[in-house]
Specification:
The chain has 225 residues and is an alpha+beta fold. The chain has four helices and twelve strands; from the N terminus they run αββαββββββββαββα. The strands form two sheets. Strands 1, 2, 4, 7, 9, 11 and 12 form a seven-stranded antiparallel beta sheet that branches. The protein is globular.
Length: 225
């Protein structure tokens, strides 16, 4: 009986509450007026400050500005710091659905489970489409195309958009206002937290252990010679 009670306690304490996911979503260009093909600016990146430790998914908003061109795979890499160069900590590739058009900014998320970071540190998500000018990533702030007036402020102070080539690199790096439309979902592992049912199992298990120990003491007899 004692063995069964201890097994019940072990099962109860092994149950943990699942980690809750948190999503950071930044929309700097809400109308999609500013979208740039990566073949035009080269590699593009978005730096960010890690808020959790285990990345689950990374998403960007896209438009197909030149749908007649090839829909080539896009590489996604994670670098340490606010930079487009250096060794990638993690990398993967994905292909956007052909249904994305040039009139609607469309979210597309990539599963990056297993990409672990340090909360509070800066990292950069780097995109590279190679030679194809089909797909464009949406960014902001938006600008009045007739006057050149900037129509928005800094949508995300924890990072900035980075571009390999002109003309975006000049304005974005000097103004510090540019951000890609991006979102990150991440979790932080939580310590075991017994749920109500688990507490009941633990109490029952401890009661069984106590009862079994009392019974075992009663069964002890003393013999005098």
């Amino acid at each position: 009986m004692i063995k069964h009670a201890f097994l019940l306690l072990a099962a109860a304490t092994a149950i943990t509450a699942p980690a809750s996911a948190t999503t950071l979503e930044v929309v700097s260009g809400p109308t999609g007026q500013r979208a740039v093909t990566l073949s035009y600016v080269g590699m593009a990146g978005q730096s960010f400050t890690a808020f959790d430790t285990n990345l689950q998914s990374v998403g960007f908003q896209w438009e197909a500005l030149n749908p007649s061109q090839a829909n080539l795979p896009i590489s996604l890499s994670l670098l340490s710091g606010s930079t487009l160069s250096g060794a990638a900590l993690f990398s993967t590739s994905f292909t956007l659905p052909s249904s994305i058009n040039n009139r609607t900014a469309t979210w597309f998320d990539v599963d990056v489970t297993g990409w672990n970071v340090t909360a509070g540190e800066t990292y950069t998500l780097v995109l590279d489409t190679g030679s194809s000018a089909r797909n464009a990533v949406v960014l902001g702030p938006e600008i009045n195309i007739y006057t050149g007036k900037v129509l928005g402020g800094d949508a995300y102070t924890g990072g900035t958009a980075l571009f390999e080539n002109q003309p975006y690199s000049g304005f974005c790096q000097t103004s510090g206002l540019c951000d890609l439309n991006f979102r990150i979902t991440a979790t932080t592992p939580t310590a075991p937290v017994p749920e109500p049912a688990t507490w009941a199992m633990m109490i029952l298990g401890m009661g069984l252990v106590g009862g079994a120990m009392r019974n075992s003491r009663r069964q002890v007899s003393t013999t005098f010679a």
